Amino acid sequence: MPWRRPRTHVDRAREIRRSEEEALEEKAEHAAEDEAVELAAIDGASIVEAATGEPEDDHAPSDLAAKLGAAVEGVELPALSEHRAPPRRVRAAPPSEAAVPVVAGPEPHPEDGIDLEVEVARGLRLRNPVLTASGTFGQGVEYAELIDVSRLGAMVNKGTTLHARPGNPQYRIAETPSGILNSIGLENPGAAAVAKRYAREWPALGLPVIVNVAGHTVADYVGVVLEMEGTPGVVAYELNVSCPNVKGGTLFGCDPALAAEVTRAVKAETDKPVIVKLTPSAPDVVAVARACEEAGADALTAINTVPGMRIDVARRRPVLGTGSGGLSGPAIRPIAVHITYQVAQAVAIPIVGAGGVTCAEDALEFLMAGASAVQVGSATFADPLAPIRIVEGLAAYVRANGLASIRDIVGAAQRGRKRDAGTEYVE
Ligand SMILES: Cc1cc2nc3c(=O)[nH]c(=O)nc-3n(C[C@H](O)[C@H](O)[C@H](O)COP(=O)(O)O)c2cc1C
């Protein structure tokens, strides 16, 4: 994030209420403990089941439990696929039967049979257009305990840098009307550690992973991609160009030439699709989008957070430890839809819309503006089920409108526009 400012003295009251985001980060830090819990629950119970003593719907039993159940029932199990098996309903056995879980078929979902497939980047088709946004979904494994992540299109992981970063000083999150300000500061353990740790866990999610790459030099971006290459589960890279360049401090994403340079360098090192995440701070975001497309970008994400600040009037200083932060949530949706619409007119590569998506109608705004897919970010803090509800809502829209596919509405608002009605406005 571009707002890191060294502080000599941090004199802040201890934060009393942890934000959802911090709770998730803490959860990631304690993942080793979580793993121990999972090992303890080797009989197939989830953490929820272990805590409540009741069977939990939609929780896949462990491989061992499934094998035990199948062995007792004399059922032959299919070979374990690379991805996590679809959730199976585990019912408590009636008292007369042996105390072995009965494994039923996969749960039907409202989106079953509806064509939601989209091309989110050149060479990358996903089962549906609902992705989770970088920095708001941890590394995916944290949310997999809460929701069936395999029903989503893909996830974008937490911003990954070449070397570990501790993140910014507190406070790093502040609420605002219809949004949140954050200055997390790309806290992450570094690319090599991420690749090592999640090589085993990501494939088990059944959810394609897009790695969000950040750095301060072109070599940093390339270094992250080289470290992550070959990591199972990774299908593409998203370049967070909202980072200041060491040579002069301009954000990579504010300068078409710099954005093109980093895109070209990364493209030279990987065969996987490269998505460039546009910043609304760019003086001419359309020029940046065009430059990235010319440099070989396979898609664009529109947009990253919008710079913002809150002042603590009692203390007479900014609320965030870094002063400024990035604004996200519904407050920025009209900005993000506007940029999506403008960029869609300028490039031929797919666009992934991001900024304030909370429900299917919000997602439809982006799709009709010209995005092929959307990312859901801040909304998952308030409701972890938001991305799933959006998948269901898009399926309902396709069905209710008799569409052959969700692709039919991509860019619909562009087509519906009167030829002479530009997007310029006068206040
Ligand atoms: C707490 C937080 C952390 C974020 N971290 C990153 C990050 O590491 N890399 C990145 O490219 N974007 C990051 N973002 C930006 C989001 O991915 C997304 O572009 C933005 O929040 C707009 O979407 P939303 O309004 O749905 O949250 C972060 C956003 C939030 C709220």
Would you kindly provide a written description of the structure presented here, covering whatever features stand out?
It is a single chain. It is globular and about 55 Å long. It has an eight-stranded parallel beta barrel, surrounded by six helices. A four-stranded antiparallel sheet has the order 7-8-16-13, with no helix packed on it. The chain has helices spanning 20-29, 31-40, 47-52, 63-73, 141-144, 191-205, 218-228, 256-267, 285-294, 333-346, 360-369, 379-382, 386-400, 412-415; strands at residues 88-91, 102-106, 118-121, 124-126, 130-132, 154-156, 173-176, 179-182, 209-213, 234-240, 274-278, 299-302, 306-308, 311-312, 317-318, 325-328, 351-354, 373-376. The protein is an alpha/beta fold and 427 residues long. Helix 11 (360-369) links the parallel strand 17 (351-354) and strand 18 (373-376). The two termini are 32 Å apart. Helix 9 crosses helix 10, helix 10 packs parallel to helix 11 (360-369) and helix 11 packs across helix 13. The chain folds into two domains: 26-106, no CATH class; 113-415, Aldolase class I (TIM Barrel, Alpha-Beta Barrel). Flavin mononucleotide binds at residues 21, 133-136, 158-159, 180, 182, 184, 186, 212, 240, 277, 304-305, 328-329, 332, 354-357, 376-379.
In short:
The chain is of the alpha/beta class and 427 residues long. The protein has 2 domains: 81 residues, no CATH class; 303 residues, Aldolase class I (TIM Barrel).
